[in-house]
Write a structure and sequence with these properties.
Elements lengths: L3 H5 L21 E8 L3 E9 L2 E7 L10 E11 L7 E3 L7 E13 L8 H11 L1 E8 L3 E8 L7 E6 L20 H19 L1
Antiparallel strand pairs: 1-2, 1-6, 2-3, 3-4, 4-9, 5-6, 6-7, 7-8, 8-9
Length: 201
């Protein structure tokens, strides 16, 4: 049931995205951030919870700078196996474009005094509209918060880095992307026909 919206939006005979079922990590909860060149470039921020990946689209990408409050639009839950998805989503499909994993790792709630399990504590915070957690990634490390914005669209949140030893100011996710990025190559190829057309003129 949790993945119904995800499955309804996709044509699995055309896309290589996983159909997926609910699944849980054996040990620590995982997170993944995917760089996604769709109609616009954005970053998909995903946290494992309740057997799925709770997901937010972050237009400007995550930041290690506590001064940055990044808009994060909550989208439909994604299957656990989406954590490894990279590749092309064909034209005519939802989210058409190129996807790559930008960062991944494990995460845990910031509140270590809670009597609840890590996952139950995070689910409680998600429902309350204020999630506080610690990321153990390759690029993103330390304390973060996802806070639901009031008096706005239901799915609008802010992704904020807490001040700690891992903060970095200024920070630009694009500058921390692999030079061999297939998403960057995809974006350059999309621009190149337009450049050629201008040269003809």
């Amino acid at each position: 049931m949790a993945l119904k919206d995800y499955q309804n939006k996709r044509k699995f005979d055309e896309t290589t995205e996983p159909q997926g079922k609910t699944k849980k990590s054996k040990d620590k909860l995982i997170f993944v951030i995917q760089r996604h060149a769709a109609s616009r470039l954005h970053y998909d921020f995903r946290l494992e919870m309740d057997g799925v990946l709770k997901s937010w689209a972050v237009p400007k990408g995550p930041s290690l700078d506590p001064k940055d409050k990044r808009l994060a639009m909550m989208v439909e839950d994604h299957p656990y196996h989406y954590k490894d998805f990279e590749g092309n989503i064909p034209e005519g499909n939802y989210g058409a474009g190129q996807v790559e994993v930008w960062d991944s790792g494990t995460y845990e709630p910031l509140d270590k005094d809670s009597k609840l399990s890590d996952e139950k504590e995070l689910m409680k915070e998600l429902r309350s509209g204020s999630l506080k957690f610690i990321l153990h990634g390759k690029k993103l490390k330390g304390e973060f918060a996802l806070v639901k914005m009031k008096n706005t669209e239901d799915n609008a949140w802010l992704l904020i880095k807490h001040k700690d030893q891992f903060e970095e100011s200024p920070y630009d996710a694009e500058e921390n992307t692999s030079p061999k990025s297939l998403v960057t190559k995809f974006l350059e190829e999309k621009k190149s026909p337009k450049i050629k057309e201008r040269k003809k003129l």
